[in-house]
């Protein structure tokens, strides 16, 4: 592999075939107030249908903010976001957000948790149960359908969260450091499993991580952000076939490239956070 970054053409027309198209997207939190805080600036990014894109950047550079905007939970201050050609204006079951900390309802069974979104949508009980069973089978937890969340390990609970998202048959999974709280072995298993289910479902994935190893294992493309306000510094294609051997020369080379791309941004983010702390 010849590791190289790609320059995005911001004038490229939005295609209804692309899962996500961001054009000039910026976000200022508390805009117009004295607490105004610019989190993102000038984001131009397309995500193809079925593509797995990893967002990598220093802490506070706006990765989660971009997921919230694409989810439709927040509006950008500037620019436009389209989902299969239509402007994103509100949340949609076609776009599922999964966080690091799963919030399963402890008083509901695993199956009821997975079916929760379907019950809000008004699907009949038999259809909900069937969809929950199928989604749990996809994550290898069909046998846990009647268990309570506190009977499961952290990795299993995270799989239930993925099953809950899959049950809605989303076209896009927005994942915010979903495996960061897991131990190394469970995390590696979850990465394999996520690749399997995303390929089987055909959903696009936008995945935030701080782990360069995770980015190398998972991504079709890695988007590297600058320190805040987050801008896209580089978009690095990852053409190696999966499963990837992390010690293969191409993977080692890519890790080095991403480490170097991130280093100066992480230093800049640290310096800014220190300055902020000093001024109280
Ligand atoms: N709801 C909010 N209101 C005001 N400011 C916010 C809000 N959410 C995030 N921010 C600020 O926006 C900036 C970007 O935050 P965000 O969480 O998107 O970054 P991140 O890259 O995901 O960070 P991390 O990697 O540490 O999770 C930060 O300075 C943060 O304090």
Automatic annotation (TrEMBL):
The keyword ATP-binding applies. CDD domains: ABC_NrtD_SsuB_transporters. This is ABC transporter ATP-binding protein. InterPro entries: AAA+_ATPase, ABC_transporter-like_ATP-bd, ABC_transporter-like_CS, ABC_transporter_ATP-bind. The keyword Transport applies. Residues 20-252 form the ABC transporter domain. Belongs to the ABC transporter superfamily. One of its GO terms (molecular function) is ATP binding. SMART domains: AAA. Keywords: ATP-binding, Nucleotide-binding, Transport. It comes from Elioraea tepida.
């Amino acid at each position: 592999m010849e590791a190289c970054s790609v320059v995005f053409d911001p004038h490229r027309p939005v295609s209804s075939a692309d899962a996500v198209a961001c054009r000039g997207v910026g976000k200022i939190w508390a805009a117009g107030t004295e607490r105004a805080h610019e989190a993102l600036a000038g984001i131009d990014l397309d995500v193809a249908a079925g593509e797995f894109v990893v967002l990598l950047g220093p802490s506070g550079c706006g990765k989660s903010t971009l997921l919230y905007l694409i989810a439709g939970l927040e509006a950008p201050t500037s620019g436009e976001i389209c989902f299969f050609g239509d402007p994103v204006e509100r949340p949609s079951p076609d776009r599922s957000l999964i966080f690091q900390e799963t919030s399963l309802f402890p008083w509901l069974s695993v199956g009821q948790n997975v079916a929760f979104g379907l019950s809000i949508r008004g699907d009949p009980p038999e259809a909900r149960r069937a969809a929950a069973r199928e989604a749990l089978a996809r994550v290898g937890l069909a046998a846990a359908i009647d268990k309570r969340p506190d009977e499961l390990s952290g990795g299993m609970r995270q799989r239930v969260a993925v099953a809950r998202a899959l049950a809605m048959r989303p076209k896009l999974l927005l994942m915010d450091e979903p495996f960061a709280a897991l131990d190394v072995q469970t995390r590696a298993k979850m990465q394999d499993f996520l690749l399997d289910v995303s390929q089987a479902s055909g959903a696009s994935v936008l995945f935030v991580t701080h782990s360069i190893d995770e980015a190398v294992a998972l991504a079709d493309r890695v988007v590297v952000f600058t320190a805040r306000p987050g801008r896209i510094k580089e978009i690095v294609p990852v053409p190696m076939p999966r499963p990837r051997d992390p010690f293969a020369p191409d993977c080692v080379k890519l890790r080095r490239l991403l480490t170097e791309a991130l280093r100066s941004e992480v230093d800049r983010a640290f310096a800014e956070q220190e300055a902020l702390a000093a001024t109280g």
